[in-house]
């Protein structure tokens, strides 16, 4: 994940969020590339956004939604996951030319809204 794109994703989320959120953009290892916490966002949104991005970056799923559905279908699968993985909506993997380059995690609004913000930011910043 290039820094310029990560910063553009953060800016898009912050500009378009209907309320205070935290956004975390990660590389393919789930490590920080860019992040922000809006004024008024609850402190726990930081770690939640980080966990969502980490999950989407490191799991074999393309989103925390997809991973949650996979885990719900198989208790043995769920028990074997990385304890830092999150099943909350709002974590989306970022792909470029079919290759995973990182992920975005958004936290602070209802999960469906967090997820939509992440998806829109990814789409709007594509090369």
Query: Main sheet, how many strands, which sense, barrel?
Result: 4 strands, antiparallel
Please write the CATH class name: Alpha Beta
CATH topology-level fold name: Beta-Lactamase
Distance between the termini: 12 Å
Low-confidence stretches: none
The CATH homologous superfamily: Haem-degrading domain
Domain unit count: 1
Give the strand content.
Answer: 15-25%
List SSEs in N-to-C order.
Answer: HEEHHHEEH
Number of strands: 4
User: What form results from the Cα inertia axes?
Assistant: globular
Q: What is the helical fraction, as a range of percent?
A: 40-55%
> What's the alpha carbon Rg, rounded to whole Å?
13 Å
Quaternary state reads single chain
What structural category arises from helix and sheet content?
Answer: alpha+beta
Biggest sheet strand order reads 2-1-4-3
| Known CATH architecture | 2-Layer Sandwich
DSSP summary: helix tally: 5
Short description:
By secondary structure, the chain is α+β, with helices and mostly antiparallel strands.
Report on this model:
InterPro entries: GlcG_carb_metab_protein, PduO/GlcC-like, PduO/GlcC-like_sf. This is Heme-binding protein. The protein has 127 residues and is of the alpha+beta class. The chain has a single domain, classed as Beta-Lactamase (2-Layer Sandwich), CATH 3.30.450. It contains five helices and four strands, in the order H-E-E-H-H-H-E-E-H. Strands 2-1-4-3 form a four-stranded antiparallel sheet. Strand 3 and strand 4 form a beta hairpin. The longest helix is centred in the middle third of the chain and has 15 residues. It starts with a helix and ends with a helix. The model has no long low-confidence stretch (mean pLDDT 95).
């Amino acid at each position: 994940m290039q820094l310029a794109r990560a910063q553009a994703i953060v800016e898009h989320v912050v500009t378009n969020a209907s309320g205070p959120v935290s956004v975390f953009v990660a590389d393919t290892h789930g490590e920080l590339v860019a992040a922000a916490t809006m004024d008024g966002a609850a402190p726990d949104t930081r770690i939640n956004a980080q966990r969502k991005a980490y999950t989407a970056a490191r799991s074999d799923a393309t989103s925390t939604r997809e991973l949650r559905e996979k885990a719900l279908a198989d208790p043995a699968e769920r028990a074997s996951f990385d304890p830092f993985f999150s099943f909350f909506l709002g974590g989306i993997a970022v792909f470029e030319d079919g290759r995973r380059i990182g992920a975005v995690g958004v936290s602070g609004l209802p999960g469906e809204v967090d997820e939509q913000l992440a998806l829109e930011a990814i789409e709007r910043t594509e090369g």
